[in-house]
Amino acid sequence: MSSVQFTLNGITVEALQDETILQVAQRYGIEIPRLCHKEGLRPEGNCRACVVEINGERALASSCSRKPTRGMVVESSSERAQQAQRMVLELLASDVAEAAYRPNSELDHWSRKMELGTPRFPPRQQPPVDNSHPAIAVNLDACIQCSRCLRACREEQVNDVIATPIVVPLQRLFSILMMPWDRVVVSPAASAFKPVPPGR
Ligand code: SF4
Ligand code: FES
Predict the structure, then answer these.
(1) Distance 14 CA to ligand 1 centre (A)
(2) Which of 35, 141, 142, 176 is geometrically suited to a Cys-Cys bond with 198, CB 3.0 to 4.6 A?
(3) How far, CA to CA in Å, does 176 sit from each of 47, 84, 107, 163, 180?
């Protein structure tokens, strides 16, 4: 497929072959929040922080997984799109532990950009620290279930350092990540695994 012209936030932009709306926006200096997206990993489109409004479509679309078509009219900063982006960030911020593990996580970065304060929602009950695996201790209180770690291990490193013993549908990801680690396959090549967590 050759390049495609479409409208993004009122300006005419050109998508190169196979680019997503998010990638085009980035190239044109238009910022759209994103969390489960990571350049080099297959887009999963599961966090919904990057949603945009597409003219003629009822539902908002994940810009990280959606490719533009010729003549499409897309808004990433309309009131509706921004309201949805802000809501996702606020909900995820209420999911993670209050005390941050690092000063500028991606979640905090985008929350600040969107001028969000303390989440209005009650915090989730955090899963207990899991020391059931002899090689890895897991604390998921900063996990936003973005699945980057699973995609990185299974699809990029192809080492299955973190993997599940069976292939399960995406909608079960939450329960996979909450699964005790003595039921999760961890390869001895754990040092090859470089997680890329966007949560705190
Ligand atoms: S552990 Fe980190 S990379 Fe993995 S799903 Fe949770 S937030 Fe994403
Ligand atoms: S960054 Fe697009 S859905 Fe998560």
Answers:
(1) 33
(2) 35
(3) 16, 26, 22, 9, 9
